[in-house]
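G., the chain you wanted modeled:
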Amino acid sequence: MSETVHYKGIAKKVITPEGKTINEFSAEILKERNIKIDDYYENEMACLADWCYDSYFYHKKSNTLFEITRESHEPNDDIIRAEFDRNGNINYELRYYNGGAGFEECLEEALDKLLKDEEKQKEDLYKLELGNLTKEMYDGMIKVLEEHGFLRQP
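Predicted structure as tokens:
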């Protein structure tokens, strides 16, 4: 049965061990969980995304695997948003009608919006930089924005 659902959680970028691909890393997780990779899966990543959707999410556009946690909340209006925290993880909140969209589709949309918003922030700051700001003023503004979590620190 389809219903409106509301999730809040964290998407933490998975750093694969040096020398391992995402598919090799996915195969290890599947092996640990005794999950057989059937022939109809394109690769190990596709199998992991199917079987472990409550724990892992693969964002195709950034070619990034995320370990996810999520908790259910009482649904009302649609919410699809994500933001970076100070540790570089992504906090997300999704509330949607699951008869029209799925968890993975909505999380992908939230991450796409986040990356687009981050690019816009950088462009806006660059435009400000071209104004009457001194180097010290610009550096101070960047520092304050980073300290308050509005920009990711490199």
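The beta strands are 4-13, 56-59, 64-73, 79-84, 90-97.

Shout if anything looks off.
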